[in-house]
Design a protein that fits this description.
The structure is a homodimer.
Chain A: H1 2-6, H2 13-60, H3 67-94, H4 101-116, H5 118-126, H6 132-155, H7 160-192, H8 197-220, H9 223-231, H10 235-250, H11 261-314, H12 322-325, H13 343-393, H14 397-411, H15 415-424
Helix pairs in contact in A: 2-3, 2-6, 2-7, 2-11, 3-4, 4-6, 6-7, 7-8, 7-11, 7-13, 10-11, 13-14, 13-15, 14-15
Chain lengths: 435, 435
């Protein structure tokens, strides 16, 4: 009893409930911050996607087309790049101890040298010192780095509802990027007046990948946004897109493509991608609103708890026995005698009930979160399998992806299942180097 | 270009690498804190386990045995309770924004009313106003609350190696708790001079559960501790334990047990549990050391990065192009020409390599962490299935556990598989109430 007297400020259960709520609000604040960042990244990605497509027309036409468009686009990209850099800096200075920080900041560290290399990339493109494939590869790599930041933001989310929206947004952005790569691929083909087997195969792969991503988006987004996405793709535009796809991909090797179609291809695919950007903005807006609502809701709850805590400080103590006597967990209703209990006892019971309620809520949030994360884990598994193949067989990421996809098609299995088999069989793979 | 000039302090990739490392060190500091807390909780749990066993002998013998032992044990429990309360308060004041805070603090909020109810529980036991089953149930509930805090600490770990140790420690503590429940169960049986079918079944269940936990402990602990655990259980002691188990559990219903065996049972099972406590202390020590080592290692790395960052600030800028020109990810060795590159270029390359190395490390840590977490998810799945059964069928936790176990035995399936089936079939379960 001596020791007990030494710590008169021993905190009650309610005080820890308040602390738990404060942590939750902190996590929501962080999510709001990263959601904001994701929106900013999305706008830069959109500009870089346009710049990539325009650069490919320029390179494919040996400097004949799109020089002026390119200058305007570069100015736009630069402005949005500054916004992203500023958002990175802001995140670091305002939330240096963010939950998912180690991974998120590492991804940012990876992307910054990519942004730093943009002036040199642009110089080489302007000097026509790169072929469209090399230029595309450089933009693809940079955009992949930016999307990896978005992925970490989604992976770090601790609220299942927000996590769902982030998963939907990430997959939409990834799908849009495949659409952007398709635009660049088609732009190079039409501008140069020819298509070949390798490009054709890549093109079809990009169509497949888009569809997979948009499916995941539809699965995780609010139904209203899925509807919006379907409604903004007019059938006429889709028909024109499919017609141009067919012309380029069904043409026998060696047969010339009409170079005049490059403008039409660029406009048609750009119109579609711009429409995607509108959906993406709506997704980002919805995410922001959701974060704000959740924060407001948690703050209200915090106020209730804090008021109760103050009240409890003033209440005269009754021996705390509710924990001992409280009904079994499965017992639903308060006992009829509860009204007759003394005030302190009643307060104690209601606090216990709040604690139980909060535990239940956190538990079910955790469960739901795991379900949502499964979609992210799928990507991680495929990435790991690709990494393994790259290291062991000394091949590029694209080749590794193609191997997996080919195996999946041959064996009529899902990509994720093939990736899992590859990982399970890791030790049987031919040794390739330090990897 | 105007905008760029407005933010002259734009941070480099290396600066974010440093931020990422700082976040990692923060996470390790938090893990060291919670590991410390887990050790303190373990000591209180040990004392409460002894108090539960002693109380059962007192109640089973209608106050004839262990009155003095009980007073001594209560004094010990009180002292350790104060240490735990102090540790809770310290965690809250020193790390109010701890990563896993929402869940961890909720668990603490749940456990504090349990500690607050202890004086009343002790009063009722002293007045022989409870039967051994009710007294055991109260202690079991309180200890389960304390172990839930340990579980959240393990679940919140972001470093896979530390997570492995926490999973080992949690399972060891849980196994020890089943051993403690077995002691209390046996103490009540021998002290009252009789055993019955329900208690026999519960007893066998406790033996099963212990073995499962110690298996998981062996899977996740350092091999040295697995060896220690096997070596401290002398065969003679195990033989005596098994003999007493057999006497109590194989006796036909209605046949009297020798009440003189209660002291022998209590001593024999206590000796075993005290030996467990020694292993547990070793586990907690090892965890502390590991955290310290990891923190020291991360701090050294941080210093290297910070020195490089300072150096970079002084270096004259060369256009950053390493990201653009760097070899493909699968390419292992630096190019032979690297030595000839200008100083800035070389520095730039080495930073890119550091970023890539850190990403790889974080990625593989994430993968490993998921593997370790599978062991925790197993528990979560079983808990969820139990919760569902409790709500839908209005049964107690123990009954729910028994149902699952019985089904597993009948169908020759693992408990976790049955639990997963239950969750998958949730909507087909009979409706039972608001749950």
């Amino acid at each position: 009893m001596l020791l007990r007297a030494l710590y008169p400020t021993m905190k009650s259960g309610l005080s820890f409930l308040v602390s738990a709520l404060r942590c939750e609000i902190d996590e929501l604040d962080q999510l709001a911050r990263t959601s904001e960042l994701v929106g900013t990244i999305g706008r830069l990605v959109h500009a870089l996607q346009r710049e990539r497509g325009i650069s490919n027309v320029l390179l494919g036409s040996r400097g004949q087309r799109f020089a002026a468009q390119r200058d305007a686009q570069i100015a736009d990209s630069l402005q949005l790049e500054d916004a992203v850099r500023q958002a990175f800096d802001q995140l670091e200075s305002e939330a240096p101890r963010i939950g998912n920080g180690a991974r998120l900041f590492s991804r940012i560290a990876w992307v910054l040298p990519g942004l730093g290399a943009l002036p040199e990339l642009r110089r080489r493109i302007g000097a026509l010192a790169l072929d469209p494939a090399a230029s595309t590869a450089a933009f693809v790599k940079l955009i992949a780095g930016l999307l990896a930041v978005v992925f970490e933001a989604a992976d770090g989310a601790t609220d299942p509802e927000i996590s769902r929206r982030l998963v939907a947004l990430f997959n939409f952005m990834q799908g849009k990027e495949f659409a952007g790569q398709e635009r660049a691929c088609g732009a190079a083909a039409f501008a140069s007046g020819r298509n070949d087997e390798a490009r054709r195969e890549q093109w079809l792969h990009l169509i497949d990948s888009q569809e997979h991503c948009f499916q995941l988006f539809t699965d995780f987004a609010e139904p209203a946004l899925g509807t919006l996405w379907r409604s903004i793709q007019p059938s006429a535009q889709l028909a024109e897109l499919e017609r141009l796809r067919r012309i380029a991909c069904a043409a026998p090797a060696g047969v010339a493509l009409d170079t005049e179609l490059s403008q039409r291809w660029f406009d048609c695919s750009s119109e579609r991608i711009d429409a995607m950007q509108a959906v993406e903005e709506r997704l980002a807006d919805g995410l922001r609103t959701l974060c704000e609502e959740k924060i407001a809701q948690a703050r209200t709850e915090l106020q209730v708890h804090e008021a109760l805590l103050a009240e409890l400080d003033g209440a005269t103590g009754t021996p705390p026995t509710a924990f001992l006597d409280e009904p079994a967990a499965a017992d639903p209703a308060p006992s009829p005698a509860a009204g007759a209990a003394p005030y302190g006892r009643q307060l104690e019971r209601s606090i216990l009930e709040m604690v139980r309620e909060q535990s239940r809520r956190l538990q079910s949030m955790g469960d739901e979160l795991e379900t949502v994360r499964a979609a992210l884990n799928e990507r991680k598994t495929v990435e790991r399998a690709k990494g393994l193949l790259m290291a062991h067989r000394r091949i590029t990421e694209e080749e590794a992806h193609k191997m997996l996809r080919q195996t999946a098609m041959n064996q009529n299995r899902r990509l994720i299942d093939v990736a899992e088999s590859v990982l399970a069989m890791a030790e049987y793979l031919p040794a390739g180097g330090p990897g």
